[in-house]
Amino acid sequence: MKNQELRKYVKRGISCLVAGMMVIGMAGCQSQENEAGKTDDSSQSVDGPVEIVYWNQWTQEDETAFLEKYIEEYNNSQDKYHVTFLAIPFEEYTTTKLATAFATNEAPDIFECSPAIITQYLDAGVCEPLDDIITEEIRADFTDSAFDTVSRDGHIYGLPLDSDLVALYYNKEILAEHGIEPPTTWEELKEAAAALNTDDYSGFTFEVDKGDWQCFTFYPFVWMQGGTLFTEDGMANLNSEEVINALSLWKDLLDSGNCNETPGRSVSDISILTNGETAMQINGSWSVLRADPEKYGVVPLPAPEEGGNSASVSGGWNVLVSNQSSEEEIAGAKDFISWLWLNVDHVKEFDTEAKFSYSMRNSVIEAGEDIYYSNDNAAVFSDEVISTAKPEIALSGEAKEIVSTMIQNALYSMSAKEAAEIAQEDMLKYQEESGSVFFG
């Protein structure tokens, strides 16, 4: 796809979620990107190194400290390339910032995508193949499915970094004071939320705001019933009994008044629990090192009924290179990500010290085995949660909007069944017109 056609495509809507906001952001976009290190001038001064710009969403202190340390080390190790990075808050990064940058041809040279947003960038044709740096030896070190999401037409476009899981975190002291055990079923979850809810903190917090994180945490409630959002042949299954049941559970929890409807930030942020704003919170494996295991516990997501199965979702971030960059910038981007993200010791440190996540690379898991059992909460993820996880559904922007709207409709404006029926009709229409299929 030629650059002119590409820009037209992306402006037309690289994601339905950001379409309405892109017009607002255009006027200030150029200056914003320039502040991040990408300029309209040549990427290389007459005598200086090629400037490489890296964007990601790693905003936690330990994450940014890791990147600062190793980017400085890389820059000092050679004089051909100079890397700078910008860590952008998750919601801004996944909705407006990255999409607008590509729409205006001001994209970073290196960027990251989760399965929730990667399809739109692969569909837009803005990613550079990485086959030349992912050797057969390296490929064999990853799990069998590691490259499924980032591959198209026999080419690999992304380097998998991690695999994140979700479970239920809880405040041990608050539950003990109320004589409540961590819930193991949907009914127990409702009862615990009611018993724990006070004027000082909510009983339970889950994501009530529309977006990627809400979809991510919703999927397991369908899967743990044995259901799917799409059939085996990839077509919509959104009006199935299992989807309606999951929507009904979330609606019941919200309508009860026992949940935190205005957390003020994404529920992917564990500080909602650790700051004392809630007694229980759905959150991810990345928070294991941020929630003191003496004060906070973890259990698998509650099952539909006693003796039933729990489920989790496995999602993670992939490093990609923009093909809007010059040949020199692409070469530098590949050199840097090879140096940083194909180094087992670097990845192990990032996944087990800067954060807590499960690498899809076998050698990294082996190197970090002690960390994956370093405390009780880590052991819960390693022994109980990871075995129940299914891969996050990689949806197009249009398909994700339909699923997101379905959840919001069920929470706020109509019955779960009505929301599911509308979403089913909309998804089938979209799939018939686009030829898209999805799995999960």
Automatic annotation (TrEMBL):
Q: Which PROSITE patterns match?
A: PROKAR_LIPOPROTEIN, SBP_BACTERIAL_1
Is the keyword Signal assigned to this protein?
A: yes
Pfam families recorded for this chain? Answer: SBP_bac_1 (PF01547)
InterPro entries this protein is in?
A: SBP, SBP_1_CS
Please tell me whether the keyword NADP is annotated for this protein. no
> What keywords were assigned to this record?
Signal, Transport
Cross-referenced Gene3D superfamilies: Periplasmic binding protein-like II (3.40.190.10)
- Similarity comment text for this entry: Belongs to the bacterial solute-binding protein 1 family.
Tell me the protein's name: ABC transporter substrate-binding protein
Instruction: Please name the source species.
Output: Ruminococcus turbiniformis
Lineage of the species this protein comes from: Bacteria, Bacillati, Bacillota, Clostridia, Eubacteriales
